TrEMBL record:
Domain of life: Bacteria
Domain BioF2-like acetyltransferase: 201-342
Secretion signal, residue range per the UniProt entry: none
Organism: Candidatus Roizmanbacteria bacterium RIFCSPLOWO2_02_FULL_38_10
Pfam families in UniProt: Acetyltransf_6
Taxonomic lineage: Bacteria, Candidatus Roizmaniibacteriota
The protein, known as: BioF2-like acetyltransferase domain-containing protein
Stored InterPro entries: Acyl_CoA_acyltransferase, BioF2-like_GNAT_dom
Amino acid sequence: MAASNQSNDELIREEKPPTINNNLLPFYSYWKKEKAPREVKQYYSKNGHLKLIKSLSIEICTNVDQCHNLWHEFNQNRTLFDTWEFRQAFFDSYNPDLHFILLKNNEENVALLPLQYEQEYNRYAWFGSPWQEESGFFVKDPLFIPLLLGISPTPLYLNAIDKEALIWAKDLIDFAADDPKFILNLSNIQSLDDFFHSLKKKRRYNLKRDVKHIESQLPQIVINNFSDFDKLVELNIKRFQQKGEDTDWEDPRRIMTFRHVLRLGLMKKSFQVRMISVYINNKLAACDLIALYKKCYYGLKCGYDVANFPGIGNFMNYFEIKDALSLNMKKMDFLEIDYGWKNKWFEEVPLFKYEKDYNSDSIVD
């Protein structure tokens, strides 16, 4: 979209903010025309924020270097998903269009909504794809969150939003519950016995039973044999086929993504990677890809031969808790979606989503 021959007024009349660089649009004019909820507009009018709103401008950033700089200006690097490198792995593999919405006044940048446009799904989503978790809003003040969402393009799908990001905005914006994620806080767990004692009697029995069953087969545990990555993918695809379900590994771009994750993790620019392989009778029974970031142990991807080695999933959970403790980790992150087992062992953490002219229930990523 060429913008050189258009006035600001003409640009404002576009259906959504134009995907252009180096064009500042007066926020107030666009805000008046935008179909933001009436209660949101009334809140800002009644609470003396019109002067603030009239001082703001919008800039749409699509250049990767500029977006990179803005990301680092606002980002607080709380989790693995906050790192540019981890999200870059997805961006490089899927090649969506960047659409970072920047709010600024005459003095500084005040808010950033880092989006990408995914043509395949005809939607705007978080930079890095909906695979990211605990996403938050990049704002100097929570006051800017409804303003960002009010001028955001459509269809818009923002998933896995951190509950802390909603403390102020939830009274003005309708956020819906998303699939929860699951964690294990290790700060009060000094040993595996501490973890066992935290479980109900039946679950403790089942876990110990499965661990003994696998240990009786004399498993060989190999750390950081990253050449097992292809086997991890094969095991995962085969397991989902056995259950009659699809897996994201069937998309070659997802395989490429995690090859990038491996490469970036081995470079140790921001996070590290770790791989745990379990062989039984010279056959790969399980393989997990782990990321380490700020004392958190992330279980990213796994492949298990459950058909030939029943109980291997529980054994891997057991071993990785022991592994995380040996590395002095403070938390384990088992990611979003329960898959019918995570809630039995780990703490549930709520996540939220925001949809604008979009129905995620009809889409399968």
